[in-house]
Every structure is written in C-alpha cells, then in structure tokens.
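cron nightly-structures :: item 1 of 1
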Amino acid sequence: MPRTSKPLDLNSRAQLFAHLAAMERAGVPIDQALAGLMLGARHEPAVRRLRQMVGGGRDLASSGQLSGVFTPLESTLVRAAQEAGGLAHIHEQLAQRYAEQANHAAALKSRLLLPAGILLLALAVKPLPALVGGALGLGGYLAQVALPVLWLLGLYFGVRWLWRRWQLRAAAQPTALDDLILAMPLLGSLQRRADLRNFCDSLGLLLEAGMPVLDALPRACAAQSNARLRRDFANLAPRVAAGQSLARAFDALAFPGKPMLMAVLNTGEATGRPGEALLRFARLQAQQLAARQQALATWLPRLFYLAVAGWMAYGLLTGGGFFPALPAGLAGR
C-alpha cells in the first residue's frame, strides 16, 4: 500500500509526468531524472522514497506505487509501457491528461464562485425576518446560517476523500461502488470512456512492442480502474484463445464507440498493425473525453446557479416574502 497520506494534486501529477517524459526523450537514466524532480515540500517525502526505491534496484512502476507517488492505475500503465518500451509515450499522455484535468478543475471552481456566493447570501438573508421580529436570537440566527454551510463543506470534502481512496485502492473484485459509478448518468459515461482509452492505449503499446495478444490482454485489463469493467474485458482473452479475431472478441462487450473500434481494429488486423489501430482509437477517445470534461466544466456551474436561484425563489414564495401574512387579529375581520 502507498505510505503517503497526501496524494499528489492534478498540477503536481502533470508536472511529474511532463518531467519524466522530457528526461526519457533526452535519454537521461531514471535515477538521474528523479534527482532533478521537485514537486514541493508537501510531496518531498514521497519523492524521496521513490528515489530510494529506484536507487535500490526496483523498477519505476513498482517504486512509484510503493512510495505513494503513483496511483495503482498509473503504476499499471507505466508497467505496461516499460514492457512495451514506450515510457516516453505514456508519460506524455499522462502529463497531458492531468494538465487538462487541472485546467478543467480550475475553470469549474472559478465558475462556481458566483453561485456559491449567492447561496451564502441566501442562507444569510432567509432567517433575517425572524431575527428582526424577535422570534430568533443571535445564536439561533448564526446556527441557521452556519450549519448548512458546514454540512455542505463536510459533504464536499467527504466525497473528495472517498474519490481519492477509491482511486488508490487495488480491489480485484467488483464492488457496489463500481456498479454505482457506472450507473450514474454522467460520471458513468466518463468512467467507461476513460477506462476504454486506458485499455486500448496499453494494449496498443504492448502489441506494437511485439508482445503476443494473449499475454498483452491481461496487462491491458489491469489498466482499467473500474473492477467491473476489468472483469468484463477479461473475457476477451478466452475468446481470442478459442480462435476468434481480436475485433470479433469485442463483439460481446458493450461500451461507447464500439462500432468505431471494431471498424478500426478490423482494418488494423487486415494490415497486420492492430496495435497501431488501437493507439489511434485511444487518441480519439481521449479527444472525446476531453470535450465532455470541458462541457461539464461549462454546464455544471450553470446548473448549480439555477438550483440556487430556484431554491431562493421557492423560499420567497413560501416564506411570506411576496405575500406577507396578516396578523391573527386582522385576519378574522
């Protein structure tokens, strides 16, 4: 298990893999490349453990996971690239992915500032009539304002912590959480596309390096973070072993972009370059995934803003803001 309790943030991960890619392209040995790696004081203990493990003779993929610098998925991708001789490629792909994710996350946070401010204003205004009318003391007013804020903050940090824990796990069997994520309308689609990209990228690298398809398939399956998808894609190897072509073996699976993959893979197998076809399809999946993430960063703040505005309107309509109730003595006259 990773020993660090402070996972690398997206910007640090992008910086890490960009550095490794540049050093790999320049032909710098990994121990010398790590000597010049600086990710800040927060992550220095994990980076120091990584240097020690690589210096002790461990490979980069194992050292990265044991030191806590790599997630299990990153370690699997790097291990596949090591075996395929494509470390620079996978480092560049990971650096690009994390840089895009960091940009999307920063855009999402900036766009959420306005609706978050409106929500805080609404929470502060809603109990004001009761405070002014004397039905609510100062302590009660502060509690009504602060408790929802604390609850929302707790929910946010709790979900973020669970997501990071899920990324760092290495479960072999599918869990209810795996199925729940896949069943969610938006997140499930993003998860399927990301895992399909990782699978095709890893399998393409291994096949291009000359590894037999039956040896490459289990390694490519391990590059998927969702255990349910890993188990589904593990059924490809028995079909190929039974004599089916790789494209034909995909026919029993359900995933986004399946017709395109089968068409590309049929062409690749006909020309004797299935690995190249898989890498081309992985690039297309990466582009589509980036476009969906960009759309999410654009529309999620708008939906949140509409939800806050709707909640405020409901409070005004039902709380006497537009139609104040008459005193009891006057209402009966």
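cron nightly-structures :: done
Residues 193 and 289 are 7 Å apart (CA to CA).
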